[in-house]
Design brief:
There is one protein chain. This protein is mainly alpha-helical. About 75% of the residues lie in helices and about 0% in strands. Helix 1 (about 5-30) packs across helix 2 (about 35-40), helix 1 (about 5-30) crosses helix 3 and helix 4 runs parallel beside helix 7.
Length: about 120
Amino acid sequence: MLSIRPDQMQVFSGYVLENFRERMVQRIADVHPKRLEELGKPAVEALVDRLLKEALKHGIQKDNEVAAFIELFLNAGPRSEEQLQQPWARKILAAPALAGGAKVGLLSLTLTGRLPQS
C-alpha cells in the first residue's frame, strides 16, 4: 500500500496551489488583458493569492468555484476586495450550510444588484 507522508503532501499541495495560481493569472491575461495591463502582473498575482486564500478559508475549494470567485471580484472593479469585508458578504462566506458554489453564486447575485445587500 502506498503511503504519503505529511511532508510529501505539503509539497504536493504547494505544487497544486502554485499550478492553479499560474493558470489563473494566465486566464486573467487571456480574458482580461486590459485589467492585467492596468494592474501589472505582480499586482494580479498578489490579488489571485489573496482571493485564493480567502476562498479556501471559507470552504470554496473546487477549482471552478475558486476561479469564479476570483473572476467575480476582478470584474467588480478596483475596490472589489473591500466588498468582502461588508457585513452581507461576511454573512454569506461564514454560512456553514452553504456549499462553496452557493456562496459564489450568492456573492455574484449581490454584487450585481440582483439580490439586496442584507
